[in-house]
């Protein structure tokens, strides 16, 4: 399908000004001009149902957050070298959602910086360098975290201090997957020790977003315990899974039953305002702080703290984890019903409002169908519903709507997908 002239002009301007490293969504890119709740609006006024953007987790342009940002910006915006109470009030609130052992928080601007800091602390405290991650993990953009991001090709080739364990593919792998990951972790620890690096940490996205969205409880329990038993740290990357996304609990790591040493978070923390953090055991920070200093100019600034606090207000006041559970369960059930009509749906999985839908050539044999997945993403876009794909085979629909979704949004999504799959099968 062609795009209009205005869009064409924007695409050309963008390429000439921003260069080639950025990617656009969809064969027919969209020029967005406004957002409201679960909706986005393009330049011609068309309305899109956002089923993908997990940053604006409590809805686009939520008035309570917009208001908090605007008010604070009009009064003071400064950094962590002055005393302030809003950062401490927020710290108390967020730490209260964590296991007791995790008693300190440090603020950054992005998830990448939070993971970068987590790795620095882990390496400092263990005096080791090795890191274990899952097969297609993504942990961010800095040099250090791109090296532990196989989905970026490790920012080059796999560095010698990095080892991977399998993506916990609950659809294709047989047997006890948690035990498989534990065994692979023990093997990786042995290799890192033999190579002279030792193991500093296992870093894991607790819902395996880029590995393909795997939501079975306990998948990480053995691996996390194994790395801790070897004297390494378990770093739970909650950038995707955190803040009620997975439903009944605020944090994805709760599904795996092991308390992390460090928890990192970002994306939905300020509902679109850049604020992120690393939460950790105070003993670790005491050790790190003895020698290292850390000042992040914008991390934890006054406006960011206002945005983060307002986001937490909305999550609590609107009961969004419970809503994610309720609407997510309904969503999965409706998608599972679609399986009876469409043989190309191999698997539907999810926790709260983070769903993965596996598209296959035929259900027998579970052969991944990335071409179909890409057609579905673009076809849904043309029906003005926004999603994308993920996973090792690129065939998993990644569905992460705002946590404010209601049944009517699910119905709109499922009915559109149903009719699209019918058309594509023709
Ligand atoms: N970890 C995970 C699991 C992520 O999904 C992302 C962002 N996609 C990051 C870390 C990096 O966060 P940021 O883009 O804010 O640096």
CATH architecture descriptor name of the largest domain? 3-Layer(aba) Sandwich
| Main sheet overview | 7 strands, mixed
Give the class-level CATH name of the largest domain. Alpha Beta
Bound molecules: 4'-deoxy-4'-aminopyridoxal-5'-phosphate
What is the 3D shape? Answer: globular
Mean pLDDT: 97
CATH topology of the largest domain: Aspartate Aminotransferase, domain 2
Strand segment tally: 15
Number of helices, where a helix is a run of at least 4 consecutive DSSP H or I residues = 12
- Report low-confidence residues grouped into runs of 5 or more: none
Pfam families: Aminotran_3 (PF00202)
Cofactor: pyridoxal 5'-phosphate
InterPro entries: Aminotrans_3 (IPR005814), Aminotrans_3_PPA_site (IPR049704), PyrdxlP-dep_Trfase (IPR015424), PyrdxlP-dep_Trfase_major (IPR015421), PyrdxlP-dep_Trfase_small (IPR015422)
Keywords: Aminotransferase, Pyridoxal phosphate, Transferase
Give an overview of the whole structure.
The chain is globular, with a radius of gyration of 21 Å. With 426 residues, it is of the alpha/beta class. Helix 2 packs antiparallel against helix 9, helix 4 packs across helix 8 and helix 11 crosses helix 12. Helices cover 38% and strands 16% of the residues. The strands form three sheets. It has a seven-stranded mixed beta sheet with strand order 4-10-9-8-7-5-6, with helices on both faces. It has two domains: 161 residues, Aspartate Aminotransferase, domain 1, CATH 3.90.1150; 255 residues, Type I PLP-dependent aspartate aminotransferase-like (Major domain) (Aspartate Aminotransferase, domain 2, 3-Layer(aba) Sandwich), CATH 3.40.640. The mean pLDDT is 97. The site of 4'-deoxy-4'-aminopyridoxal-5'-phosphate (PMP) has 15 residues, from helix 4. 4'-deoxy-4'-aminopyridoxal-5'-phosphate binds next to helix 4.
């Amino acid at each position: 399908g062609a795009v209009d002239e205005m869009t064409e002009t924007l695409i050309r301007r963008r390429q000439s000004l921003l260069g080639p490293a950025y990617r656009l969504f969809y064969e027919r890119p969209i020029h967005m001009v406004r957002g409201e709740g679960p909706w986005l609006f393009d330049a011609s006024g068309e309305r899109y149902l956002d089923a993908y953007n997990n940053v604006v987790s409590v809805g686009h342009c939520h008035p309570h957050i917009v208001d908090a940002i605007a008010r604070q910006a009009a009064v003071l915006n400064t950094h962590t070298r002055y005393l302030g109470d809003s950062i401490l009030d927020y710290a108390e609130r967020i730490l209260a959602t964590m296991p007791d052992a995790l008693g300190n928080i440090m603020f950054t601007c992005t998830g990448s910086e939070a993971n970068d800091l987590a790795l620095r602390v882990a390496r400092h405290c263990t005096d080791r360098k090795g890191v274990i991650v899952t097969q297609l993990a993504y942990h961010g953009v800095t040099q250090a975290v791109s090296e532990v991001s196989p989905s970026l090709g490790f920012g080059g080739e796999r560095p010698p201090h990095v080892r991977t364990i399998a993506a916990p593919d609950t659809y294709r792998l047989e047997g006890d997957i948690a035990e498989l990951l534990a065994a692979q972790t023990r093997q990786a620890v042995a290799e890192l020790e033999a190579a002279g690096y030792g193991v500093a940490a296992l870093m894991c996205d607790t819902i395996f977003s880029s590995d393909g969205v795997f939501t079975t409880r306990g998948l990480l329990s053995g691996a996390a315990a194994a790395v801790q038993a070897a004297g390494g740290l378990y770093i739970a990357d909650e950038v995707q899974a955190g803040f009620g996304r997975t439903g009944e609990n605020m944090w994805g790591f709760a599904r795996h039953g092991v308390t992390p040493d460090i928890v990192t978070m970002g994306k939905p923390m300020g509902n679109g305002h850049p604020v992120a953090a690393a939460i950790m055991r105070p003993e670790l920070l005491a050790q790190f702080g003895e020698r290292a200093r850390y000042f992040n100019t914008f991390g934890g600034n006054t406006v960011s703290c206002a945005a983060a606090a307002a986001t937490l207000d909305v999550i609590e006041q609107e009961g969004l984890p419970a809503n994610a559970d309720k609407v997510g369960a309904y969503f999965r059930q409706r998608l599972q019903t679609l399986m009876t009509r469409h043989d190309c749906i191999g698997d539907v999985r999810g926790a709260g409002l983070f769903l993965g839908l596996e598209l296959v050539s035929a259900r027998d044999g579970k052969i991944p169908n990335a071409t179909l997945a890409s057609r579905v993403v673009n076809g849904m876009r043309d029906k003005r519903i926004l999603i994308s794909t993920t996973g090792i085979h690129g065939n998993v629909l990644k569905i992460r709507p705002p946590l404010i979704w209601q049944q009517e949004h699910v119905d709109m999504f499922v009915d559109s997908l149903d009719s699209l799959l019918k058309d594509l099968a023709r």
